[in-house]
Fold these 4 entries.
Entry 1:
Amino acid sequence: MPTSATSDDRTLVAPPVDSDQASTLSIRHDYNSDSDSFEPDAALRRRQLHKKQLVRIVSLICATLAALCAGSIVVFSLYAPKFQSRLHYTQFQVNGVAIAGSLSLYLPISVMGYVCDRIGVAPLALLSSVLFGTGYGLAATLYRKLDIDYNVLGKPHGPGNEWSYLLMIFAFVCVGSATCAMYIASISTCAKNFGKGKYRGLALAMPITGFGLSGMWLSQFGSRFLYETNADGSRGDIDVFRFFVFLAILLFVMGIIGTFTLRVVDEQDLIEEAIEELENSGLLDGSALLGRSDRGYETAGPTTPAGDLDSDPLLHPSKGDDAKWKKNWVLNAETRQFLTDHTMWPFALAFLFMIGPGEAFINNLGTVIGTLTPPTSGFGEGTSAATHVSVFGVTSTIARLLIGTMTDLLAPAPETQHVQVAPNRSHHRSSPLRHFAISRVVFLLFFGVLMSIGLIFLASGAVQNHADRFWVVSGLVGAGYGATFSLTPLIVTIIWGVENFATNFGIIAMLPALGSTFWGLVYSAVYQAGAQGSGPAKSGSGSDDGIFCYGKQCYSATFWAEGICVWVACVLLFWAWKGKGGWQQRGIVI
């Protein structure tokens, strides 16, 4: 016969609570044992929102600071002439070092983007720290040794030091890879943290702008504070050894800071929202996510059997919890969707044809300036590589900031931060300036034309013997280069979403390595051919004959071809936008 419970021995029997509910309760209530009360939900949510916002802001600031230092490879032209005059490298050898840096900057970016999306940004920041320290440390050691051997001890060039050139190549491979890691970690953090905000263009533009600005301040700092002293006590050219040591220390420290401060907030929410969007569009079968079984899944994308996804070792049920598995499953499906989008390829080629000439220009800016003045005058008399690296950096920075701000104000914006795939289904809001909108593609085409004008202005010979006009070239090319690097990742996030941004942008961003290499080799061949008929070297040393070049013949053909290449890029971009099955026809908001 049951007995009634008294007030003293009465117990409360709660219904069973599963682990997810328990986790939710533990998050939603902050129990105070002293007052036997729970903190109100609204107050706790506000506190959590403030904490998340603080993390976003700190990550944005640190990402911008990291990018502000990461673009050190852009100032290569500042010390490239020293590789010729002090280390006795030929133009082909100088470009070999530059190309090694450019290839390692772009080729690993798809792999690093894949790692960034699936593992996180902190490992990439740590990797950049190690590679920067190794690369610039080794380059400083090699430069110091060869400089002393050739110019102090008077040892003949070459014998006993054949290995040094390969080590210098390796050093700049480390520098390029480190730049890639720090850059992709910085912009990926900002893209994912601010993908929902109406100022996502500006948030993404900040680290991109910092990267462009790094060339300006590093070149000015190096030339003004880390310089050699002439025999008469006046300030000479940059001290390359001290500059490399400075970069090694600075970038090692910035990589360590980024390891602890770059964080993506609510990344799992991004994945859940992406799943919902893709299910609504019919590209994913939601039932496949509800249960994993040995038989695989019926569909994973528009053209991809889910069995292919299930064969990925990252996605095997034994490899991790459901959240991680679901994230990898969705990101791989989105990668395949990205690769099968026919508009992605002309867009990627347009990026290749714009950035390739820009990269080759900035890598060879120093030697181009040297061709503008007669051999009897000083090297680049009336101007300097540091000045024009700064001009390039300033115009690139202004373009990046303008793009971020103006596209937020003037361009239409989709309501979603995920992939736009379904024709004519993309709901969008107009630009903040009502009834007036300019597509981001128009901005990119405009700055592409500006870049081509700068290249053709140089190719025409208008700057020859008028080095004071060179700012027109460096300014226009810098503006076009900066705008392209700002708009391309922004367009990727808007059309193909933010959750898989690093992978998608990495696939596109690895292509300019081909353009940089190709145009670097073309410039070297034209320069070297021109050097054979340019007369005695500027140094006056017969041993340097055939190394230096003076005159329009040293560069004109190269930059005519580069200008035409940028025009081709504009045509490809216009086709992706307005062509058959293009973004406009599919109703994609861009």
Note: Strands lie at 31-32, 37-38, 227-229, 235-238, 413-414, 428-429.
Entry 2:
Amino acid sequence: MSASTEGWERLHPRLVIVGASWFLGPLATTAVSAVLAGGLSVSAAITLAGFLAAFLVMASIMVLRWISTRYRITDTAVEIHSGLVFRRKRATSVERIRSVDVTANPVHRLFGLATVVIGTGEQVDSSDSARRLALDGVTRAQADELRTRLLRRAPDAHGDEATLARMDWAWLKYGPLTIWSIAGVGVALGGLYRLLESFGLKPYELGFVKGVYYFFADMSPWAAVPLLVAIVVGLGALGSTALFVESWWNFRLSREDEASFRVQRGLLTTRSLTVDRSRVRGAQITEPLALRMVGAARTNAIATGLGTHEDRSTSPKSALLPPAPIGLAHHVVAEVLGLPDSPQRDVHWRAHPRVALRRRLFRVLQLVLPPVAVVWALGLWLTPVLVRTAWIAGLVCLLAGVWLAFDAYRNLGHGLSGDFLVVRSGTFARRAVALRRDGVVAWEVSQSPFQRWSGLVTLTAAVAAGRNAYRVRDVAVADGLEFAERAVPGLLAPFLEERGERVRSDRAATARHTPQTARS
């Protein structure tokens, strides 16, 4: 073997079948549509022919991809070469590798394949294939071997892993407590409607749909509306529970050694993510309103290289726990950050000025009064029913808005806990973020016109992880600047010196122009 080809490996040839197997979905949908319509319509046949042409194109692309992709792992570097016409060569030092993400969707698992994504600490979104280091189409055994080699683990190291958390099926009750449990029903029905229409079917003409329509049309609105709401909520709860099971089946969070931790989970799509502790810049505990009412929360790591959108509480990549009791969330954060207690719990929250509450109450008036006024005006013109509707809806929305405004104000907070600065805000989803103080690379100080009038400021901590920016909202100017300087000493010094010089010069100018009163 020549030096130019020594050590190079290819993806598995079954990748071609996996890449082209997406055609099975449209084929099954066409078959179902043909059964519902009593035969294959002309539009369905044309659509099917289009899918078949796309299938042939995709199969050709996957063959070329398999032929042209090679990878090599040495003691010092990882190299990936791909492309036939436009060649792309990517390489990174083994010393830069901070995580290895091994995933396998149902089709990959059917053919015994997996995808290995190599994280180097660089912020790269999953859609950026040009910069993303990924091997899509290696066998499961190869994926495990790559993970061991890239992270320099002993082959049997996983046998000594310390388990930090395992799946507890008592957490299943938290699955439906999300807004997506209801919104998902509408999304699914809308997608099904559009899909049937694309095959020339009119869903509202199907016998089953007509039967459902007439069933509710014959009922009193006082009975039909609650029943319909109950059905939608029930379907949403079932869907959310099924999604919870699929996402968190066989969940395990473990500490491989003092330098890394590993998250494993998934029923249909399995995922194994190993993260180097040195790239972790903090953690986020998110309490959506429904979960907060039952004492539960979501937990996510804030780490470099996970992508700019991976700090979301619903992110599958940065999640450390499924929705779980808040006490366990604090425990896991402490373990991952290597602390005796989580910074979100071991912190003295500094209160925000009362003017921040007035700002939130004013927002409620801005949102509620204009639509209520429009409906009320239409009622004066058209019918008194709209007037009564405007008063009732306005009162209900105003009371709910005031409650949410007070809740949002109570949730505001910031403070310092050892090597971490902690920020909390939100009402529909209260987020408490702990960031390493040495990970903050810059502060942004901003003021809206209302904030300037009220003496408030918003501080934004820039971090090379997560969403890259975390805000301390509506804090008093002096308190906010003092907090930023204490959190990261010296970072705001030029700004504070400039501000101090400006204040002194303003005072001097004021003194020069103030008339002096002589006393006898």
Note: The CA atoms of residues 182 and 236 lie 5 Å apart.
Entry 3:
Amino acid sequence: METIYDHLNSINDNLDNNIYLQALNSAKSGIIITDNRQPDNPIIYCNKSFEEITGYLHNEIIGHNCRFLQAQDRTQPEREMIKDAVKNGKECHLEIRNYRKNGTLFWNELIISPVRNKEGEVTHFIGVQNDITDRKKAENELREEKASAEKKILERTKELHDNEAFLSSIIQTVRESLLVLDSDYKVLSANTHFLNSFKVTPEDTVGKILFELGNHQWDIEPLKELLTKILPTNNPVIDFEVEHDFPYIGRKIMLVNAYRVEFEGQYKDRILIAIEDITEKKEIDRRKDDFLSIASHELKTPLTTIKGFVQLLKRMAPEEASDKFLTTLDKVSVNVERLNNLISELLDTSKIQSGNIEIHNEPFKIDTLIRDTVENLSLATDYKINISSNTNATIFGDELQISQVINNLISNAIKYSPGSDKIDVYCNRVGHFVKVSVTDYGMGISPQDQSKIFERFFRARDIQKKFPGMGIGLYICHEIIAKHNGTLWVESEIGAGSTFNFTLPIIKENRNGR
């Protein structure tokens, strides 16, 4: 019997007969299909409307469980209703709070339907979602209109005055350059920090069009396009980097954030622009990267020599050498290898930052790579590493780098689960991707640290005290997977272990399976 997965593959592979896929993609509702036969019921298909509603790209959705849309809002009773429906293979219809990729809330009307095979077993679930945020907003507005008109006017007037006063106090006291513009991009207010930073006066600034200030130094085409084309669509401009040569102060690199402030009455349609000068930070980062690159290269040469001498000493050890001598030599060898790995990671980080990391792409079997990597690691640990990987999938990528990612994730799983003795490695197909998961049963990671764990040099405080390291291994893994058009993420709870997952696109296979 042909499965939904096979049917979807046949639809995608045969572009002349893709009417079903076109029908799904033309639907206004977001549609997903999950595979109930796989652990955690992962998403194996989503249509275009689902991507548009959630703000996530296709490769950021595939392989996840649907609960990722609730982010940290986990106490909703509707989550238990969904869990119960999936567990019992039932249909359910409910409304739940979800969050887009940019963190904004939207209300989701969700219909979940099970798909059964001939034996009556639930093999898949089909989920249909509709964005009902506007309806919820309208319902809330109707409730608010029950109050008396006079009271609403008085409260709104007071609120507007309070907001304006509050906004003015922020603008003048914050240690960041801030501007308030009207809908025509005329400067209504500039705080002291802006005036001092850019060596201008209130007379030169207030009442002038932003793009006409001074010698038109703010008439920067990419910034102008963002403010005039994107901001009117209610999409904020976040961390837009601007590099420009300003009069009197020279070249500056800035992060610009812009938001529409939607008041009513005389304060309608204000634009708030925050400008952070990151010139010095960029220069410090550049010097740090240069230092890491130079230091790593300089350390590599003498370390290679030391490593060679240690290997020579081990081969030349006299027969009557004491156990203490041999044990000491082994410890030296282990620590030299550890130092060599640290320097290699620093070199990888330097290459990533400079854009010089090399990727040698060739087809390889992911199942074989996982088994070979785990076999090498098993020789150096007492942990039981369980493998489930029978995808027969071929990946086009740098086999050595993907092996480095798997090696790092398993090594971390061992390192951060000292009270456990097993690691689970699972690989399966999800749509046109493979999903690799490494699960440990150790200390877990807090929600606040999960959002930063893939940043360069980040290490959680409690981990810093107990385990050595520089905090660059996961950063390197994240960048390698990103360069292979995949995604890397973590799911964890304190005291309940962690699961690191990543996806990689599968080479499209023809009808002969090659």
Note: The longest strand covers residues 105-116.
Entry 4:
Amino acid sequence: MIYPNTAAEKLGFLDIKELIKSYCLSTMGQQMVDKISVMTNFDHINKFLRQTNEFKSILLNDSPLPITNFFDIKTLAEKARIEGTYLTEDEFFRVSVSLSTVFAVIHYFFEREGQYTNLQALFEHLPVEKSILGKIERIIDPKGKIKNNASSELQNITSDIAKAEQEARKRIDQIFKNAQNNGWTADGNLTVRDGRLCIPILAENKRKLKGFIHDESSSGQTVYLEPEEVFQLNNIIRDLEFEKRREIIKLLVALTDELRPYVPLLLSYHGLLTKLDFVRAKALFAISIDAEMPVLIKEAELDLINARHPLLFLNFKKDQQTVVPLNIKVDEQQRVIVVSGPNAGGKSVCMKTVGLLQIMVQAGLLIPADEHSKIGLFKQICADIGDDQSIESDLSTYSAHLSKMKNFIEMANSRTLILIDEFGTGTDPQFGGPIAEAVLEELNQKKVRGVVTTHYSNLKTFANSTPGLENASMLFNNQEMQPLYILSLGKPGSSYAFEIAQKIGLSQKVLQSAKNKIGDYQKKVDTLLVDLERDKKELIDTRVSLEKGERRLKVMLAENEQLKTYLEENKRSIIKDAKVEAQNIIKNANKLIENTISEIKENKAEKEQTQKLRQNLEQELKKHTVPEKKAPKPQTVAELQKGDWVKLMDSETIGQVIEIARDNVILAMGDLRSVVKLKRVEKISNKAVPKEIRKSYAHDLTQDFSTFSTELDLRGRRGDEALYEIEKYLDRAVMMGLNSLKIIHGKGDGILRKLIRGYLSKYPQVDRMEDEHADRGGDGITYVYLK
């Protein structure tokens, strides 16, 4: 139940129904949309939601459902039910195409057995009686006309009509030609008057030709005459036409009699078409608002994730804008959310979004929210929105509000959802606030759920200290004086009355006078709320920045793991190749030794020959002997400089020194940057570095110098974006050995400047920072000098 009756309209539910109706193919579907109402039965709601979700899946992911022809066959079936009546050719044609659609749809789902179970339930146990279609198609052609061969009598009559028409035409053509030759005719050709083919004759010649005059021209100079001979033939044709019509009616009556036993089945087919049109319209509307099916639960609570008001979403979509999503939870612990904050900050939209989406779900409609959102069921939905003053009932605005509050309290229970906009307004705040607090206390004792918006401080204080009530605020950027439309649970919000008044230009004198008129306590509370909101915004920005940093770290760790895996695989491959080569060397050495001994024996150990063979053996062995490596002398900071080439001692990897910091050295190895211990590297000469590596490094460095600008413009960037850009910018600047940089951040309120300089002061490579000259930008530009 929705109370009052106007609540659905004020929440926008009637607008939703009108939008759904625009997607219907038939008036029957539109009539079903008009009947959409809030349900409380869990199984019914779940069935309707799943049907719509399945149809949405068909529209997005499957071949089109063959539902192009929708006609109101219920009216036709009811007509056919009455004895003595008959359906016309056109009516039978509409029944025929509708049945074709029904059978095509049933076949579509039979081919996808078990895939769309909730939609298949629409025609479960519904027989496919194709004989009805066969009976109609035997008589009616694809254009909706009686077939000429529907019966032998009709076929004979049609043939006689054709012959008579042919003879009549032939005869009148001859008469017309003779009249033309005699100069009796007026300008023009044969024409039809009163359904008869006539000759245009000049009025002075009308007695020269026997026949019947059907009409004359407006000037009276031309008459339209049907020749006597043709008149008789046309009468024969007319009689044949009457016979044909009588035969057609006879056939239609017989066909209607054949269909009369199938009237209940035709009504069932009509119901299927209507339901399909209805569900299709809901699915198309769901697609238009990016709607999903939430998790339906039986408890009286809700948890909306990334929810958007559907009407607001569609309006923003036209202007290519996006709606700030709403995240809100109402459950046993926080039953009533008391939302406060500035005017035009989104409080009412928040409350209306909750109410409208709850109604939509309980009406079986998908909602524009994350599919993990949870929506429960409420027995009553009570809303107090807008001005309901009534001259007829002699009710003022405040009286109308109090009347609703009275009814809310009487009908409220733990399965009631209340939605109250600007709670307590309409009368003196000194009295309206306490009354609103007492009503809220009574409603809370009845454990209702809901969302309440207010500006009253006493309600914020009451919610803060009362179990079951939860404060919430719409965030506001108090530096740019712009609402953020983000709901923040856990604390009340300031109304920003003085800040907004100052922004729109109210004089300082008036503002100061107003501040003096409010109490010190109220000023302290409002100031505290503003400070809390500012601190929370900074925390949110910091959290966003940290999350971005964590994502970047994860990416870097993943890349590091890939590189490590690649090096391990190469290491195993090199060792394997080395073992194979060593085995080959040993094998060849053994052969050489055996051959040498054999030759010595053959030459009977002559001294000179033996010595010569030994020398040959030693030379061959030296070729495969690995010279003993001397332990490398540990490098010192003084021995290495930026730009030197080094090799890692435990591998053949070569890199170029970017920077030396204490016992560590930063190396550039291709596109990678790595920090290694100083004792793990060995300085090598430029000649020892492969030519292609030197060329690649020189090319990269040249490219960096040619494309790198010493000026970075960050105006208009968010804080986290600006810091990310500076981090990349400084890394490249340090790598290329630059001495100074110019960062343009603008003046504004000085927030971005403060954030950037705070970050740069912690960067170890930064020596100092200075403002630009006042004539060239002043403190809107920061010069950064590197060590």
Note: DSSP finds 23 helices and 24 strands in the chain.
